């Protein structure tokens, strides 16, 4: 991925925060890893650009680390919701530009939204939904929620549609869906035209309303 070099701070080095920290380092980013737990911090000494033992609910500590100058701060404190909220509040007050926070539950999320977290993530819930959708359906391989009612899904083409063109299937008119790309083995056809015949096993990348996607799935079943 072509990315501009930025400075990040990750607070809380559990599985989630730790994974973000590793990935950012892998992407060549400057990343400061912070945790209150010394052992956790030691694990990141050779991974992050800086690894610091600190309590992020201590405003003076965050100030002295110059937290305001980081492009993006991730708060990945898990079980201690109070610490997560307080940390976010302090980051906000210190003027941090971009704050991403991991929410533990819906109430936590609500509070984070109120105090102005820029991005709230819910990894366990979202991954759970994604996997549920995947295993509940025979045709959906993956999905990305765009809103409460719209998604992008990967649908595998079966006998019901193989050999037919998009025009013959009339996907847009009949289902209100757009096929934005077709993956065939290692190839990918972006914006396929109406004359494109679908082959068995093609992976269709489909965008649309969930209700329309459901109808298309029924059609395939
Ligand atoms: P996982 O991502 O593995 O599910 P979790 O979010 O459940 O982890 P926790 O162990 O609850 O993990 O919290 C993540 C990290 O946040 C821990 O390593 C913990 O030490 C750290 N942490 C908790 N409070 C603070 C704080 N005030 N300042 C800095 N780090 C903290
Ligand atoms: P429309 O009047 O629906 O915009 P169009 O003028 O773009 O269609 P074509 O591009 O020839 O006409 O496509 C004919 C039909 O084939 C479309 O109405 C649509 O149902 C289907 N189709 C073509 N391409 C796609 C696509 N990428 N995704 C979904 N359906 C498609
Ligand atoms: Ca956890």
UniProtKB/TrEMBL annotation:
GO-annotated molecular function: monoatomic cation transmembrane transporter activity
Pfam families for this protein: TrkA_C (PF02080), TrkA_N (PF02254)
Span of domain RCK N-terminal: 5-121
Domain of life: Bacteria
One GO BP annotation of this record: potassium ion transport
Domain RCK C-terminal: 138-221
Gene3D superfamilies per record: NAD(P)-binding Rossmann-like Domain, Regulator of K+ conductance, C-terminal domain
Protein name from the UniProt record: TrkA family potassium uptake protein
Source organism: Ectobacillus ponti
């Amino acid at each position: 991925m072509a990315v501009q070099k930025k400075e990040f701070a990750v607070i809380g080095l559990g599985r989630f925060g730790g994974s973000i920290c590793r990935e950012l380092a892998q992407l060549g980013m400057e990343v400061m890893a912070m945790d209150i737990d010394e052992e956790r911090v030691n694990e990141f000494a050779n991974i992050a650009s800086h690894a610091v033992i600190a309590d992020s609910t201590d405003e003076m500590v965050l100030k002295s680390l110059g937290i305001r100058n980081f492009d993006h701060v991730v708060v990945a404190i898990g079980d201690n919701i109070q610490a997560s909220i307080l940390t976010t509040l302090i980051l906000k007050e210190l003027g941090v530009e971009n704050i991403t926070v991991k929410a533990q539950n819906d109430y936590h999320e609500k509070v984070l939204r109120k105090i102005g977290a820029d991005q709230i993530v819910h990894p366990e819930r979202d991954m759970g939904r994604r996997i549920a959708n995947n295993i509940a359906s025979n045709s959906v391989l993956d999905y990305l929620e765009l809103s409460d009612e719209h998604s992008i899904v990967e649908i595998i083409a079966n006998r019901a549609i193989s050999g037919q063109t998009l025009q013959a299937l009339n996907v847009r008119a009949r289902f209100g869906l757009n096929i934005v790309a077709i993956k065939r083995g290692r190839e990918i056809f972006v914006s396929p035209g109406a004359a494109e015949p679908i082959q068995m096993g093609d992976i269709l990348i489909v965008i649309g309303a969930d209700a329309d996607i459901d109808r298309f799935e029924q059609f395939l079943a």
